[in-house]
Automatic annotation (TrEMBL):
Protein name per Swiss-Prot or TrEMBL: Uncharacterized protein
BP GO annotations: spore germination
GO cellular component, one term: membrane
Subcellular location: Membrane
């Protein structure tokens, strides 16, 4: 039991699976469709967040203590189950590679504009390998340490930013209609809010997998509050300029000054982003390793941790031509891709299994 994730650690890891890169990409993605009403786009998270709760309930009832990969095999058999499982594993890999590329772009823009791409990409290779070799519990303990700091720092950030917030930037409401709001809600409300479902692949590493639906409800509420505060502050401070900025929150932090002796708080922001992305990367790479273990019948996920980490590192550099192609992939492609992989597949798997097996599967 000591090597398994507690409920609190599960909630933290789920939140970081959204906010690890969400703090970078979500304000930018919403700003491509709406500015003044961007905070309304965030409210859609509350409704779409119900989907991850329902998926967790369905999965728990049909496959208690079974991962998504194991559920696919039980439902569709070895051949078709492994075919769907391969798709699922590739999705986890693609997410991890995209997250790693987002980190590279962020470091390149903010800190190391002249450093080679391969060197920037390698910054987390050994930390991730070492952390995952110790087990997902070590990542959970790190999230335990980081979460209280993040709450305090975020609260201070919002308070300090209020001096520069112009409420007029948030009014009038819905002057362009509801369509831009809904288009802006696609990325945060679908792509990012579905990412906590990766935890279903880690159910055997959880102390209490039965509480996942309630845990996800807490995660959705926390993510909503966090994103709403970020959107209100960024729109209030930056106004219309938010549409042309890659990292709006970073620009807001650069505006903050405390008296005449504390400036450039963006250094702390970069450190916080690096730590949160480390957690998100570790979670998805670990889930990818667990999926590969179950897909190919390996003795342990530790067998593939090193090659999987290197594979994700390489994919982060070669899967996307440039930052624009990555942005287009996130905004235009991932919503449908994630709906099928994280919602349709588990629900379809549960439906097929329940049709052929009236009683839920029980592990010995």
């Amino acid at each position: 039991m000591g090597d398994k994730l507690t409920r609190l650690e599960t909630i933290y890891l789920s939140v970081w699976s959204v906010m690890g890169t969400g703090i970078l990409a979500i304000p930018f993605a919403i700003g491509q469709f709406t500015i003044r009403d961007g905070w309304l786009s965030v409210t859609v998270v509350l409704f779409t967040g119900l989907s991850i709760i329902l998926v967790a309930i369905i999965h728990n009832r049909c496959f208690p203590q079974q991962s998504v990969m194991q559920g696919l095999t039980l439902s569709f058999g070895r051949i078709f189950g492994r075919a769907f499982g391969l798709w699922y594993a590739l999705c986890l890999y693609l997410i991890a590679a995209t997250v790693w590329r987002e980190l590279i772009v962020f470091l390149e823009v903010t800190v190391y504009p002249k450093t080679a791409l391969s060197l920037l990409a390698a910054v987390l290779v050994f930390p991730i390998f070492y952390g995952l070799h110790k087990g997902i519990k070590s990542v959970g303990l790190f999230s335990d340490f980081l979460a209280p700091l993040a709450v305090v720092v975020s609260a201070v950030f919002v308070i300090l930013s209020m001096e520069d917030v112009q409420l007029s930037s948030l009014r009038p409401i819905l002057t362009d209609g509801l369509t831009p709001v809904l288009r802006g809600a696609v990325v945060p409300g679908i792509t990012y809010v579905l990412e906590p479902l990766v935890i279903l692949q880690l159910v055997q590493d959880l102390n209490r997998s039965k509480s996942l639906p309630w845990d996800f409800a807490i995660v959705v509420a926390l993510v909503f509050c966090f994103l709403l505060a970020l959107e209100v502050v960024s729109i209030g401070v930056l106004g219309g300029a938010i549409a042309g900025l890659r990292y709006p929150i970073l620009e807001v932090i650069r505006v903050i000054k405390i008296s005449e002796f504390i400036e450039r708080l963006d250094t702390l922001y970069v450190m916080a982003v690096l730590a949160s992305i480390y957690i998100k990367l570790a979670v998805f790479i670990y889930a990818f390793c667990k999926a590969m273990e179950e897909l190919f019948g390996l003795s342990s996920q530790k067998v593939v941790i090193w090659p999987a980490t290197l594979l994700v590192w390489a994919g982060s550099m070669f899967l996307f031509k440039d930052v624009d192609s990555m942005g287009q992939f996130i905004i235009l492609t991932t919503p449908a891709y994630f709906i099928f992989t994280f919602v349709v597949l588990p629900v379809l798997s549960a439906g097929v299994y329940r049709f052929f097996h009236p009683k839920p599967h029980e592990t010995s």
